[in-house]
Design brief:
Immunoglobulin-like; 4 helices; receptor
Amino acid sequence: MALLWLLVVLTPVCCVLPTNGDGSPPIANLRLDQGTKRLTWDLSGNVSRIKCYVDGDYLGPAMNNRYCLLNVLPKCEPWNYTVLITVPGGKLFSAWVDYPTREGNPRAAAEHLRCRVHDLHFLTCSWTVGAEAPGDVQYEFYLEDLRTSQKWPCPHYTKEEPGTRVGCQFADLSELLAEEDEKRYFRFVVQGTSGGSRVPCSEIFQSLSEIEELVAPNLTTACNKSLAVLRWTMFSHFTRFFDYELKIHKNLSEEFWSLPNPGTFTVTVRAHGGLWSAPQRFVCDPEDKTPLYVWLIALATLLAVGAAILLCKKCSLLHKLFPPIPHMKDPIADNRVHEKMMAWQAGAPAPEDCPVAEVQLVKST
């Protein structure tokens, strides 16, 4: 099966089917124009259709059967450019060219080149030393805008013993790239140098939005016992549209859950493929969280105070409406001699009276 697949892939780029009576091919001088980024050729016969391929992937139809436009040209690893020509009668002819020409030992080039945008502003790239790199190999990194060809050298390298560079970091992409466009593609290049041999470069092509690790959104909420409204804010220099994922954890006794009447719950959110926000716990019915006995004590206190006030007001009002009746004198009962009383005759001395002597004081001169 693997052999059959290999034959099918290689057929359009290796097999020549001449169509003219003299056996001459319908095109000649297949070449790459670096200035215009065109794969072009010279027509030498009648053709019905021409298609272009890059490393086996379909690029598109030729413009006026004269050339194919290329988005980017590689600098390090050779790419295969193939044209598939259909001539009148339906027969096929193919031709190809490799670009650029391979130079040096490819196993001396930096390997496993990876880049990522993280923490909103940082670009970090890493690579490993080539398996067959010379002992004095050194690497340099730069970033290139494919649309403008502007280049940015690495400002800060990461090194391993004995000082070989194996990583690079840009600390603030927002200042580096003034124009924010998620469709902008960049070339990430690691060039190798050595005193004894030529070291090929390594490169990858990506947009910054493709390699961005999205930061966690800022999450806020407004809620009550009936409804919860969650809002979050997303930040990115290179991505404009997001798909969000929401995780909500809530203790339930039922076998279902709906957003209304949220109660108490914990939620995290992220943009698809990004980092999750820190779990946040929300209490949307705080009035139900006050212990019942507190409310009962408060209510009983209010009732007692109210009852006391009403009772005082009621007693004061009754005293004013019904004042107490004064004591009435009984002429009969008041003249009755009490058993503890004794009779008294006017002018008669009492038995317990003591004799009194009269003394006259004469003033001396």
